[in-house]
Amino acid sequence: MEKSLLGLLREGGFILYARHGEATVGTDQPYFNFQYCYTQRNLSALGRREAIYYGQMLRYLQIPISPPIVASPFCRTIETAQLAFPNVNVQIEPFWYDIFKLGGNLSTFEQHEILTNLRSVLEIKPSQGTNKMIIAHSFPTGVGLGQISNLGTVIVKPRGQGKGYEIVKQLSLADLADLGSSEIK
User: Fold this and answer.
1) DSSP run (H or E) holding 45
2) Which of 120, 103, 116, 114 is CA-nearest to residue 160?
3) By CB count within 10 A, which of 18, 26, 39, 159 is most buried?
4) Which pLDDT band holds residue 25 (cuts at 50, 70, 90)?
């Protein structure tokens, strides 16, 4: 019998790429500064609740996540990571800002370079028996991992360096909650 998605996630070997929680407070100012959250869009009260629920759901489903949790340098992604995984180190990686920039006005060369770097990151297999967690941004439609809802998760299966990756499934926050209820105990 084929293993369920939840069964596969519990065995590890995947990258879980999630978009941050709902961010409707403030705006990303033209000259925002990563050090000053007031210059950026930030999590709403709902976004904070979503982040806490997201982390609780992964723990309830017994999906192993290896530290550190990787986050984009925006306050909304860092806060999402800290609320979802309060006892796990959050590692801020500037590369994920490039994913945010994909939604802007980039040359074809710049876009290609970012997507090539994304591919090399998503090819790296996590430690045996665990999954890697990245919290960053949605992509433009048809680019990279595509549009992602608030705390939606793209499940990526790395094939190893130089071998690409496979998008296994994209789950909304509600889909993730349904994973547990669809599992046969």
Assistant:
1) helix 45-60
2) 120
3) 18
4) confident
User: Per the structure, how many domains does the chain have?
Assistant: 1
**The pLDDT value given to residue 3:** 74
Q: List the CATH number of the domain containing 68.
A: 3.40.50.1240
Question: What are the pLDDT digits (tens) for 105-157?
Answer: 899 999 999 999 999 999 999 999 999 999 999 999 999 999 999 999 999 99
Pairwise CA distance, residues 87 & 59, whole Å: 12
Query: Shortest CA distance to 127 belongs to which of 170, 77, 50, 68?
Result: 68
Q: What is the DSSP letter of 38?
A: G
Helix, strand, coil fractions of the chain, as percent rounded to 5:
35, 20, 45
User: Given the structure tokens 């889909």, which residue do they identify?
Assistant: 175
* Tokens, residue 23: 């961010």
Other C-beta atoms closer than 10 Å to the C-beta of 35 total 8
Q: What is the C-alpha separation between 156 and 5, in angstroms, rounded?
A: 12
- Give residue-wise pLDDT tens across range 54-70: 999 999 999 999 999 99
User: What range does the domain containing 109 cover?
Assistant: 5-182
Q: Which positions ≥6 away from 60 have C-beta within 8 Å? A: 180
